[in-house]
Amino acid sequence: MFDFKKTKGALLGSKGSSILLIAGMAGVLLIFLSQFWPSSSSKPASSAASAKTSTSDYAKQLESSLGGIISNIQGVGRVQVMVTLESGVQYVYEQNQKTTSNRTTTSGDAGQTQENTDNEQDTVLADNGSGAQQPLIKTEMQPPVRGVVVVCDGGNDPTVQDEVLQTVMTALNLPATSISISPMAPRAQTASR
Fold first, then answer.
1. pTM
2. Could you tell me the domains of the chain?
3. Do 159 and 128 contact (CB within 8 A), yes or no?
4. Residue 143 pLDDT more than 90?
């Protein structure tokens, strides 16, 4: 059990005073040295932005996912998928909005009322870690898919074509006119000697 009287007596003595002084100096030294250590908990805004998925990575991810799904359809066989995108990634930036309303009433014969409303929007800026300011990203929107090309072993079979078409239309919410399905070239035969 903790004995408060013994602890109080030890701290009030000359030996206790020197212990308190050393502990205080060590604390101040640690606080001073902490400014030289990089903080792992606060990421600069630029590193968060650089970690975003690039457009080409997004297209490759879609191609891989579609290829995996399509390859499981009966009769497809080998499959290759290419996805084209409309544009690059679009960012929506955080905004500060300020609205000011003025209302003026004129008394007299006409009794007119005039109301003016002013709206101001400013982009919110954040420190990127190196002292520079950059816009704060609120939302990142991946680009819409423009079209899909599927090349597969079963591309000649109308049943396989229809199933692949329905799968891609459903997965990406695309019209049939944006999807092409073609047969894959036969594998190269190696001549035995």
1. 0.52
2. 4-34 (no CATH), 52-89+142-183 (3.30.300.30), 95-138 (no CATH)
3. no
4. no
